[in-house]
Amino acid sequence: MSTTIFYPDIFNDVYGPIMQPGSSSHTAGPCRIGYCAYSLLGEKPSRVYIILDKNGSFAGTFGHMNEDLGMLAGAYGLLPDDERLFDIKSILKQENIEYEFEFSEIKESNHTNAVKFILSTNASDKPSCSVTLTGNSTGGGMMEIINVDGYPISYYGERCISVFDLIKESSTDIENIPEQYKDYVFSSVLPASFTNARKEQLFNSITDLIKYANENNKSLFEAVLDYETSFTGWTKNEVINYFEKIKQAMHKQCTEYIKDDSKVFETPFSGYHCKEWISYSRSNPIYAGDVVKSALEYAFCAQTMSKGVLIVPGPMGNGGGYIYSVLRAAADNYPELEDKLLEGIAIAGIFGAIAYTRTSPTGEVIGCTGECGICASMAAAGLTYIRGGNPSQVESAASLTLQAMLGLPCDPIPGGFNQPCTSRVVSAVTLAVTFADLALSGRSGVIPYHEVLDSADQIGKALPNGCKCTSTGGICLTPSALNCKKQFEEWHNK
């Protein structure tokens, strides 16, 4: 049996994967699942057959979040950071690789983000020329492979291991496992893979984080470094260097559009607002203030999808960019904060890791509270920290922010010009700035952050299925939204 330890991590779950533009759960997660199927096949398939739950989240938003591109790219052997993802349909056509999507039932899983791949090849020199693999995209680009060729397994992409050994971990009937599965080997797809140096999770709440820091006479940032070194087995310098990599990717995500908009991936329904906001905000007074003005500019830049410009999730697709937008805008207006940005990103990250510990912060599970709400609370915590807030104020900022965003549905409108997502991103950015000020003024969050997360989990899970990223409820049922969806589907199916 495996002795590895698995728990939510900043680099894997929160700020991962660093990827091509899209959704972490709808693009990156299924891309990784497809890649796992590809890796077992051992070569490019001649046919890709993909089954999606007709009542699941992928079916509801299909094409709106590049689900089809991510799945096909993974089955072809690409990972989410590969720019060829956007051209995958043309690539498959050129190489005469057939593909088909079916919307029916997936008996192996009841997860709303389940996907089943059946890959086959015409090769005659292999004992098996096809692979059937089922996985769940669990949020933040993370996934779990749960079945291979009818054998139940559990694999998170965290280590290099054979299917034979995975079946042994999940089955008592090990004598009848076909020998061929020893040759079916998964490779790790996570930036922070399992090592023998991994330790138990140091803390699973911000309350315990603060207690750990106090007992060990450390700052919150130093405590976060301990968390990551315990998880990864890396040195502190290696952890800091990876945070620097994340910071650089976030910065490019939030600024590249201003430098070069030639690679923007636009459709008739994109609804990007960066150009309009820049034009307006630079020639008109912004009553909300300079920090919010700049933060929205960076956030709108982060929202644009540009081929080759990698994005950082956190936990929603562009969420890392939205968090950085707040920190970057603060440092632009108050230069003394510049040297603290990396620490602010790390502090925001640990709040995200705790969110993943207490719930599944995705639209498919607890609504947009799990995406915009968590991002806003992370940004508020990071901003409060770099402004000199004490640990209690940092937690209060996150708690206050998340309390204001409880119960949000996740109801993206296909063809709806990024609504209502844009409205909620704007809310996330502005609330983070506001509640950081409020916490620094002495306002207590009253409810510890982990208890707010537990409440978000309870409220979100009680939302109707149509309000959890299926585009079948909430604002998606308005006449105008239904018309947008009809127009999008006609365009996407051409």
From TrEMBL:
Q: Which InterPro entries match?
A: ASB_dom_sf, Fe-S_L-Ser, Ser_deHydtase-like_asu
Q: What reaction gets catalysed by this protein?
A: L-serine = pyruvate + NH4(+)
Report if keyword Protein transport is assigned: no
Pathway listed for it is: Carbohydrate biosynthesis; gluconeogenesis
This chain belongs to the protein called L-serine ammonia-lyase
**GO terms (BP aspect):** gluconeogenesis
**Which SUPFAM superfamilies does the record cross-reference, listed alphabetically?**
Serine metabolism enzymes domain
- The main enzyme category here is lyase
Q: Per its UniProt entry, which superkingdom is the organism in?
A: Bacteria
Which cofactors is this protein said to need?
[4Fe-4S] cluster
**Keywords of the record:** 4Fe-4S, Gluconeogenesis, Iron, Iron-sulfur, Lyase, Metal-binding
Indicate the family of this protein.
Answer: Belongs to the iron-sulfur dependent L-serine dehydratase family.
- Mind telling me which Gene3D superfamilies this protein's record contains? D-3-phosphoglycerate dehydrogenase, domain 3
Which molecular function terms from Gene Ontology are attached? 4 iron, 4 sulfur cluster binding; L-serine ammonia-lyase activity; metal ion binding
Instruction: Describe the location of the Serine dehydratase-like alpha subunit domain by residue ranges.
Output: 216-475
Q: Which organism is it from?
A: Eubacterium uniforme
Q: Which PANTHER family match?
A: L-SERINE DEHYDRATASE (PTHR30182), L-SERINE DEHYDRATASE 1 (PTHR30182:SF1)
* Enzyme Commission number(s): 4.3.1.17
